[in-house]
Amino acid sequence: MKLRVVCKDESLTDDELCIKCELCVGKDIITMIEMMKEEYNINEIIIPECENLKRLLDVN
Fold it and tell me: Tag placement on the chain: N or C end, fewer CB within 10 Å?
């Protein structure tokens, strides 16, 4: 299953599993992602073009 992380300014969709990032306002996105991975057997995480989030998740 895929998990889409959307920027705080974007809308969530009903047709896929999504969470709002809100990293730039101090929210703990890492814990939320880990919880979703355990609960829903996530095998792919789709993230927005955000350098802060990429650096935090260690994505190149």
Answer: C
pLDDT grade for 17, boundaries at 50, 70 and 90 = very high
- Nearest of 56, 7, 52, 15 to residue 34 by alpha carbon: 56
Q: What is the pTM of this model?
A: 0.77
CA distances from 27 to 10, 19, 32, 39 (A): 16, 12, 9, 20
Strand ranges across the sheet with 44-46: 17-20, 2-6, 44-46
- State the residue for tokens 């999504």: 18
pLDDT of res. 59: 67
- On whether the CB atoms of residues 43 and 1 are closer than 8 A, the answer is yes
